Amino acid sequence: MVNNNMNQQTTDLIIIGGGAAGLMAGVLAGELGLRTVILESKPKPARKLLMCGNNRCNLTSALPVQKMLADYGDPVAPFLEPALTAFPPDALRAWFHKNGLQTKAQHDLRVYPQSEKAADVHHFFTDHLAEYGVSLMLNTPAREVVPQKSGGLVVKTDNFDLHAPCVLVATGGVSYPKTGSVGDGQKMALALGHKITPYRPGLAGFDMPPKWIAANPVSSLPDVTVNIVSNGKTVATTHGFLEIEKYGIGGPAITNASRIIARLNLKNYHFEIEQDGNRWTLDPVQVRPLKEAMVTVGGIALNGINSHTMESKQISGLFFAGEVLDVDGPSGGYNLQAAFSTARLAIETISKKIPGQRKVVQKKPIRKNSPQQNRRSSNEKRYHKNRRRP
Ligand SMILES: Cc1cc2nc3c(=O)[nH]c(=O)nc-3n(C[C@H](O)[C@H](O)[C@H](O)COP(=O)(O)OP(=O)(O)OC[C@H]3O[C@@H](n4cnc5c(N)ncnc54)[C@H](O)[C@@H]3O)c2cc1C
Question: I need a surface site. Which of 51, 107, 313, 367 has the fewest CB within 10 A?
């Protein structure tokens, strides 16, 4: 960073939000030699990433990219297509492997880290940030983004202002607010002229009537087909596990239905369930609240963003990635893949905008228990100790 005056420093890139998209963007910016600062409001980055896939972290899918795009559906698929085809699941996995995180696909085509530990993905990112010298400032919420007449943008925090030619907003959706994603990035975008599409729960369960709950003990039904029926017509179908929960119904077949219902804005609907030749009807009371949903349907309106660059159409140098956008996908690694692909596309564009900075930094993969990895652990401790300061 370069000191402009007592209160304002300059860097190449400021990333707001140290979640899945922000950390991926930070590592890629580090690879390209961009001087980068990540501002993270929480004391620990990527809290949602740590919860992913029941702490196993379903990173992506082994499905072909065109099938994934079809599953995202409209209006997400046409927007995501450039990002997802530029950095599809197999390229994401190859990038993780090259950089030392092995992955594996399960029979259901969900892709996890080899260790099935979300904490390993978390460490993968924080280790690489430290090695590239990317500054991750914790307990540092960004408050405002101010475009400058003289060029670039200033990000204001409670204690200092930072200036950069490019700012990437990666503050997430609004579900699970305890993880830090509370809608700040959407408010910043709104203040700069972007539109926000209304928030709705995506990937959430449904409450069932008390009588139904009393008659149906908690259990798990595999291989269920769920037909979403509205006004006498089947409008969509999902497949997979159905979980009978204390509150009602959940599991991927049901939670996937919730985002379709939100996207289609359905008011009157019920589910017709098929399993092993049996058919029955479920008439849910309501979807579970947004704070419990795994993703947010809604966010920064996609028509305000260039889908080939992730740059704002209104404000030059302002970029967005991840769930802060009106982007969501089904259960199965679609949401992390969207966060990683949009982050990659943004960094590709940013690196072309900042002349003279682009230099690919080569790194060797680190073997488990190697002296290099042991050094990495001590580096990490030092890094965690020091990283609160710019
Ligand atoms: C329980 C659960 C399980 C999930 N499992 C999976 C899964 O297995 N696979 C999958 O693909 N998806 C999964 N998801 C969804 C996935 O976690 C999200 O889609 C993904 O994390 C979005 O990444 P993001 O970087 O856009 O936002 P986030 O990961 O939410 O990160 C946003 C970051 O920005 C920070 N921030 C917010 N405001 C500010 C501010 N003003 N200044 C600085 N920092 C700020 C936040 O503290 C946070 O760290 C799951 C979600 C949940 C809740």
Answer: 107
